[in-house]
Amino acid sequence: MSLLKKFAAATFALTMTLSLAACGGSDAPAADSNEGGDAAKTYIIATDTTFAPFEFQNESGEYVGIDIDLLAAIAEDQGFEYELQSLGFNAAVQALEAGQADGVIAGMSITDERKEKFDFSEPYFDSGVVMGIAADNEEIKGYEDLAGKKVAVKIGTEGASFADSIKDQYGFETVVFDDSSAMYMDVTVGNSAACFEDYPVLGYGITQNVALKMVTEKEQGSSYGFAVGKEKNAELLEMFNAGLANLKENGKYQEILDTYIQE
Predict the structure, then answer these.
(1) Which domains does the chain have, with CATH numbers?
(2) pLDDT for the residue numbered 73
(3) Which residues, at least 6 apart from 239, have a Cβ–Cβ distance to it below 8 Å?
(4) How do residues 199-231 score in pLDDT, each as one tens digit?
(5) Burial of 24 (0-12, 13-18, 19+ CB in 10 A)
(6) Residue 229 CB coordination number (10 Å)
(7) CA-CA distance, 78 to 68, in Å (whole number)?
(8) Is the dihedral of CA 33, 92, 256, 252 positive or negative?
(9) Do the strands 42-47 and 103-104 form a parallel or antiparallel pair, or are they unpaired?
(10) What's the predicted TM-score (pTM) here?
């Protein structure tokens, strides 16, 4: 197991021993501090559960992925501690908004609407949306073939936003799911004709034997960013940006991407 994945595994183990509820308060809490000394803050970072290759559980039950490994590497580079809370995308964003988490890293697109509630890091990944259909489907070649059909999307994703932006033009309706696996299943069993998903996510699923295929070129999407509450945890955001810059300079950033994304 790589150093980054060992770090991520250790982080997850720590998470399971501590309760978010124990932190209390309306502001995102700091964990334990030294008696009589300066507080050593441990940040609570919320994430998604099933958004491979950005965050997912491996065969050993450890949380791994681009976001998980990147966070671990940045924390090591900058010398801060954190507890990882795997909540699902919507719950993670809600926890951040309610002050129950210090930050969110979950393949979260940087949008103008979200900027009204959250402060974002420098982008750490540029997304793009593709359309996936069942691997044995030979009828659908493009968007025009979706007329009168259902299209599966995952709530809160770039794929869902893109589908909403073109559904009136091409005459299809969307069916919303909470996780990617359920969305994929709906397409493979034929309930939905297609799905829209970020290209590395769908691509990774296909490499893991999800019975789908891509039939469109990548549409330009938004960039992913690490989020904190509006005008909160500025020091955490600064450390994330500094660590990200260092990882890009020393090659670890590309190493993490190469671990999970292949052309």
Answers:
(1) 3-124+225-260 (3.40.190.10), 128-221 (3.40.190.10)
(2) 98
(3) 74, 78, 80
(4) 888 888 888 889 999 999 989 878 999 999 999
(5) exposed
(6) 21
(7) 15
(8) negative
(9) parallel
(10) 0.70
